[in-house]
Amino acid sequence: xxxxxxxxxxxxxxxxxxxxxxxxxxxxxxxxxxxxxxxxxxxxxxxxxxxxxxxxxxxxxxxxxxxxxxxxxxxxxxxxxxxxxxxxxxxxxxxx
Length: 96
Prior knowledge:
Oligomer: single chain
Number of helices: 3
Structural class: alpha+beta
Radius of gyration: 15 Å
Distance between the termini: 28 Å
Shape: globular
């Protein structure tokens, strides 16, 4: 699969999770449900993967983790909110 095909599948899976659960749940719940969707779509992923931080040639242990790494190359950062903020709503209107 190409990167655009994978990101399309990730987006569709996230939309399916949101459509089923709605807003306001914890990110951990959304993550598990997204993993369920990706598994059903036969898309390989890893959860809570450490992300190395290299600063001035030194690898630092900053505790950075990716929520999901899909197909060994796409990082997914899951965010959840109870409602859409005014800024986000305005941005969404611009995109439509």
